[in-house]
Design a protein that fits this description.
The complex is a heterodimer of chains A (111) and B (119). Chain A has 111 residues and is mostly beta strands. Chain A has strands at 4-6, 11-14, 19-25, 32-38, 44-50, 55-57, 60-65, 70-75, 84-91, 99-101, 105-110. The chains are: A mainly beta (111), B mainly beta (119).
Chain lengths: 111, 119
């Protein structure tokens, strides 16, 4: 089983749609969780950290489910500019600098 | 602007060349990272430096040699590379708390990357 697993997509959705991605992780001792966004041929940029209680930033909502070992990202009212690859990142264990990246989920928002 | 710069942005080199990639962070962070990103693969962690000491080395071939002269600069020295080493090389930095729990690990900020082609 991969340490961090994501559906590669692509997810093709119309403008205004709501779309959700999940990401599963294998190490139950994982400490920190993040969603990054990566545009084509650009560097990853932090979209949001994922807190235990869940958190929201505008149209984006992140959730953590420790029992089932997954995190989720919900995007409401999708915009064309949301088209990108969304990377799930997990910091595997306390005391290490080991950030594990998923392969990413590609989102295409269509006009 | 992320505060992390990388040079060069593009590099083409032959297998017998020696070149170096440079990364500089202007964020006052205490940890710096080298990642490799190949097509259709997740980012692979290569090296981590914390307070200028190497703390992670993920079984990277010796043809890649990192150097961290101070907390703001990180180099990746390349020699006798192979065509399969062609990839996007990303530098990142973060401020690590060193304690236990989620609040100790902060997000990483990435540079724009060096796109390397080995002929």
């Amino acid at each position: 089983r991969k340490e961090v697993e994501q559906d590669p997509g692509p997810f093709n959705v119309p403008e205004g749609a709501t779309v959700a991605f999940n990401c599963t992780y294998s190490n139950s001792a994982s400490q920190s969780f993040f969603w990054y966004r990566q545009d084509c041929r650009k560097e990853p940029k932090l979209l949001m950290s994922v807190y235990s209680s869940g958190n929201e930033d505008g149209r984006f909502t992140a959730q953590l489910n420790r029992a089932s070992q997954y995190i989720s990202l919900l995007i409401r009212d999708s915009k064309l500019s949301d088209s990108a690859t969304y990377l799930c990142v997990v910091n595997m264990a306390s005391g290490t600098y080991k950030y594990i990246f998923g392969t990413g989920t590609r989102l295409k928002v269509l006009a | 602007e992320t505060g992390v710069t990388q040079t060069p942005r593009h590099l083409v080199m032959g297998m017998t060349n020696k070149k170096s990639l440079k990364c500089e962070q202007h964020l006052g962070h205490n940890a710096m990272y080298w990642y490799k990103q190949s097509a259709k693969k997740p980012l692979e962690l290569m090296f981590v430096y914390s307070l200028e000491e190497r703390v992670e080395n993920n079984s990277v071939p010796s043809r890649f040699s990192p150097e961290c002269p101070n907390s703001s600069h990180l180099f990746l020295h390349l020699h006798t590379l192979q065509p399969e080493d062609s990839a996007l090389y990303l530098c990142a930095s973060s401020q690590e708390g060193g304690g236990v729990g989620p609040s100790s690990y902060n997000e990483q900020f990435f540079g724009p990357g060096t796109r390397l082609t080995v002929l």
